[in-house]
Each structure stands twice: as C-alpha cells, then as structure tokens.
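Please decode residue identities from the backbone states below.
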C-alpha cells in the first residue's frame, strides 16, 4: 500500500513541477486586470488540457492549468458513511479558513473535496518547490488519517 502511495505522490509531484511554469498575463478584456485564467476561462487558447492523476476511483487529483494559474483539486478517499462525514467536516473546516492558507479555495470543484489555486503572484512571493512540497505533504497527512 505504501508503494502505491509513493508512486501516486511522485506522479503528482512531477505533474505539478511541469504545470507550475506560470507567467503574468493581463486580462484581454479589462485593462490593468490580471485575473487567474483558470477561474475566468475567458479564452480557450489560454487553458491547457486538464490532467487527472488517480490512485484509484476514490482518490484522485485534477490539475487544471492555464498561462497564469493552476487549480489543483483533491478527492479524498472515503470508504463508508463515517469517512464521508469526517471528510466533509474536515474540508468545511479548512475552507472556512482559506485566507490563512493563501492557496486554498473557498469552494471545491464539483466532484472533488478540496481545491487549491496557485497563481503567478503566489509563485513570485513563494518558492515553487515549497508550494509543491506543501501540497504533497498535505496529501500524505490526509492519507495517514
């Protein structure tokens, strides 16, 4: 089981390293605005193909990237009703405190439990490898629980 987790996390790490090559990109519609294109989705040519890395059907990561932002959505393993309830409370607790995590979104993408949004400004203020380590460590800790 630990071997599949390591392989899964290595695949997520490699995918994030490839996707987190972001640059500043001003809005094409509003002057002096720089919004995450993955959220706005105003132009199809600025979006890359979404990538799903799955350990199994119940545990997967969706990585959606654009020219200036990446959205990482996590689906946490939930075996029974009690796990579903605990995961829901845990995710709700985290999403209510999204400002303190900086990269955590207040609302998850449909079909997933948690979502992170990393923009080019986050990469200018923080180190890329530390952001990736944060996401991987978060996934490891959630898997332990």
């Amino acid at each position: 089981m630990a071997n599949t987790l390591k392989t899964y996390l290595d695949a997520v790490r490699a995918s994030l390293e490839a996707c987190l090559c972001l640059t500043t990109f001003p809005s094409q519609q509003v002057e002096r605005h720089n919004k995450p294109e993955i959220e706005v989705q105003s132009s199809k040519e600025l979006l890359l193909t979404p990538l799903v890395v799955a350990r199994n059907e119940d545990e997967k990561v969706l990585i959606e990237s654009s020219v200036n932002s990446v959205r990482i959505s996590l689906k946490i393993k939930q075996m029974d009703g009690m796990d579903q309830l605990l995961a829901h409370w845990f995710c709700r607790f985290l999403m209510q405190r999204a400002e303190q995590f900086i990269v955590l979104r207040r609302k998850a993408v449909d079909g997933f439990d948690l979502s992170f949004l990393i923009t080019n400004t986050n990469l200018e203020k923080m180190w890329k490898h530390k952001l990736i380590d944060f996401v991987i460590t978060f996934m490891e800790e959630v898997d332990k629980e």
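Observation: The CA atoms of residues 6 and 41 lie 33 Å apart.
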